[in-house]
Design a protein that fits this description.
The protein is an alpha+beta fold. The protein contains twelve helices and 15 strands. The N terminus is likely disordered.
């Protein structure tokens, strides 16, 4: 059986939304589940049927109260293959057009994209084209801030220990729709000094992952998007994933919805720029993320040594897990998971890959956190007993 892994990683962007769920009722409350579609393996009856039934009841209750809309998948990796035990869709993908979510709907994944960025960097390390101990300036010689160019290493960026800060704030809001390339972000934020001495502590940094996107482009001589498409999506069989410009219409992409605290109405929202970047963004499906987990753990993306290096925790986050390279590692004594979550207004998702048992749990939602995080935590407590 493939060895597999898991994560309790919570995107810090989710933090403002992690509050008690509020009972609400909007137009879709009239239907307990808006357009549910499902795939459940018959053999799942023998695979912890009581827990799966509890999951279904939880989802029906959350969707019925309009606290969840999205798709959930439970799978298992066995002898080189993946088996779907549970896959169901709940709620609307597009409320204005009354389009229901299906098991193949593409959802925004936010910071879950950091896993793909980290895989890409480790592929280039494995190929001898990057060294983890090298500073940023070796690969981006024209990086504006010379302290970061000299002192911040690839390892620091992958583990959020470089002090490179975030991208969100007034400057992000003012220039969001002007950003069309990863280099544009360097021009906007590249003059900043590190927030602390690189390597001395952990501080989640979206901007650090943007810098890694530029490193991938400079070393591979490909655009970040082409590299991820050809070296992550394609070998993993992720045929419904991508980072297309937001201006390109796509009927199968879910619309993100947000509501103010205390409010009762979901309204369309997006904090995205023109397209996803190395720090996050893009779209995927629960099936594609299961394929990613299968490809990763069967060493189709990296060899065994570099896969282990990728997902093994390196720095304590102070939140009950250690951060690896673009993955959170919550394993203790071999029990736990690796992966990553994503969260922002109008989207929430989580991928958890479990080591000894081979189970994989994926949840994607097009409403505010903690819609998916609550479901993921609910199921995590059960999977850990299997």
């Amino acid at each position: 059986m493939r060895q597999v892994l898991e994560t309790l990683t919570v995107d810090p962007m989710i933090a403002p939304f992690l509050r008690a769920s509020r009972p609400v009722c909007v137009a879709f409350c009239a239907s307990v589940i808006f357009g549910t579609s499902a795939t459940t393996s018959g053999s799942a009856q023998g695979d912890h049927a009581a827990d799966i039934a509890a999951l279904r009841r939880k989802l029906e209750a959350q969707a019925g109260a309009d606290r969840f809309a999205g798709v959930v998948l439970l799978g298992r990796l066995e002898a080189g293959t993946s088996r779907v035990l549970f896959r169901e869709a709940y709620g609307p993908a597009d409320r204005e057009k009354a389009v229901a979510s299906t098991i193949d709907t593409r959802f925004r994944i936010g910071s879950m994209n950091k896993m793909f960025t980290a895989v890409a960097i480790l592929q280039l390390v494995q190929a001898g084209k990057i060294r983890l101990t090298d500073p940023v300036g070796r690969y981006i010689p024209d990086y504006p801030n010379r302290v970061i160019a000299r002192k911040v290493t690839i390892h620091h960026l992958l583990t959020h220990t470089g002090g490179t800060g975030d991208i969100f704030g007034p400057e992000y809001d003012a220039h969001l729709h002007e950003m069309t390339t990863h280099d544009d972000w360097i021009r906007l934020f590249g003059q900043r000094d590190p927030l602390f001495e690189p390597g001395t502590r952990y501080a989640y940094s979206n901007y650090g992952m943007v810098i890694l996107g530029v490193v991938i482009e400079r070393v591979s001589r490909m655009s970040y998007y082409d590299y991820i498409s050809e070296n992550v999506y394609r070998p993993a069989g992720m045929t419904h994933s991508g980072m297309p410009p937001e201006s390109i219409p796509a009927d199968v992409r879910a619309v993100g919805y947000s509501r103010r605290e205390g409010g009762t109405r979901w309204t369309p929202t997006s904090v995205l720029g023109n397209r996803g970047i190395g720090a996050g963004g893009g779209y995927s499906t629960v099936g594609d993320l299961l394929n990613f987990a299968a490809a990763l753990t069967s060493h189709e993306l990296l060899n065994a040594e570099y896969t282990n290096l990728l997902i093994t925790g390196k720095v304590d986050t102070g939140r009950g897990f250690r951060y690896a390279y673009g993955f959170g590692d919550s394993r203790t004594n071999g029990l736990g998971s690796v992966g990553h979550s994503g969260g922002a207004p109008g989207m929430n998702g989580d991928l958890r890959i479990y080591p000894g048992s081979g189970y994989v749990f994926v949840v994607l939602s097009n409403v505010d956190p903690p819609a998916a995080s609550d479901i993921s935590a609910f199921m995590h407590n059960r999977v850990m007993k299997w």
